[in-house]
Amino acid sequence: MRRPLALLPVGLALLSIAEIVVFISVAHAIGGGWAVLLLFAFTVSGLALLRREGIRGWRRFQAAAVEGRPPGADVSNALAGLGGALLLAVPGFITSLAGLLLLFPPGRVFARRGIENFAGRRLGAAAVGDLFGPRRVKVRRGSPVEDSPEPVPSGPVGAIEGEVVEGEVIR
Q1: Is 142 a member of any domain?
Q2: pTM, whole model, 2 decimals?
Q3: Can you say whether residue 162 is alpha, beta or left, with left for phi > 0 and alpha for psi between -120 and 50 degrees?
Q4: Does a structural domain hold residue 127?
Q5: Residue 147 lies in a domain
Q6: Which domain holds residue 16?
Q7: Is residue 54 part of a domain?
Q8: The total number of structural domains that make up the chain
Q9: Which tens digits make up the pLDDT trace of 94-138?
């Protein structure tokens, strides 16, 4: 299996071709001067947003550290905003559209979840817990799966009998 970074040059070449095609289409529709002016406006606004998102993310990270809460949600939100501002700063209509999607709440939430899932796959459970706080898990109630290799419990499903004494379970 190839590593995703090995396909990066191909992806960037395809993105460049797509950006040129979209630019020509937009220039044909609204005029070449207006298309260049629009790209310039996107790039300048993206550069301004890079600074603002960076400062805002750093302040949220510091506030989380002072309050003693896990900074992961703030960091992933700041990374999504920085990614959106960076895409907006790169000249091109496709990257500008992707950047705008990352700057508004629905796109930012989607990107933040992707960043958290990526961190969860790359880091250990303890590091993810320290970074993002306790994780939520889904628990299904009902009968266990019949094909399960584990023995079926004799009591109610999901019930564990015993008490915890100094970190050990006594049954």
Answers
A1: no
A2: 0.68
A3: left
A4: yes
A5: no
A6: 4-132
A7: yes
A8: 1
A9: 999 999 999 988 888 888 888 888 887 777 767 777 777 766 666
